[in-house]
Amino acid sequence: MPQASRRQRCAACFRPLSHCLCHLIPRLWPDTQLLVIQHPDETSHALNTARLLVSGLVNAHLLITESLDEHPQWVARLSDASWRNELLFPGADAVELVPANDGRPRRLVLLDGTWRKARKLLYLNPVLQALPQVRLVDGLVSRYRIRKVPVPGALATIEAGAEALSVLHPGFAREQLLAPFDALIEGQIQAMGEQRYLHNYRSNS
């Protein structure tokens, strides 16, 4: 018997059509521009929160690459001193992210991938290493209830972006940006069943 065809997916959010999240995705436009650099291995991940983050922001870009040498226009933009370019990454020298207004437009770079892949993205790209590193406050708790976080305080990419924009722009519509993420998690829990969810993700909480 022929194999069943793969489920059709929404061209915008890439979710199965029966679970499309587009009606929940806002179109927000904060002053800060986000650049999300996604490791290529993450593109097929079922819970691709980087795509949800960028889809909800007019002033955001998703770049799928391992090497920025393939994208010289972005190397130039990230080297442009007329912009306040910063990397959201909890390195040893990272300082807490705070609002600032030095007259320059602000661009925040996020790395999307596992911790190992995010570190690889950083070490493969000198332009990223040259950026000032900023971090979120300690003690944040992820809503990503179907993932066992690798380190305390680890957030999904969409959560990190939403938290950062909330810091930089008081009153930012954080909950609107996170609405499709919340729905995605709830849908995954329903699909696996409450008992399996409790056994796999709540037993050690």
Automatic annotation (TrEMBL):
Residues 6-193 form the DTW domain. Pfam families: DTW. Keywords: S-adenosyl-L-methionine, Transferase, tRNA processing. One of its GO terms (molecular function) is tRNA-uridine aminocarboxypropyltransferase activity. It comes from the Bacteria. Its EC number is 2.5.1.25. The keyword tRNA processing applies. GO terms for biological process: tRNA processing. Coiled coil: none annotated. Belongs to the TDD superfamily. DTWD2 family. This is tRNA-uridine aminocarboxypropyltransferase.
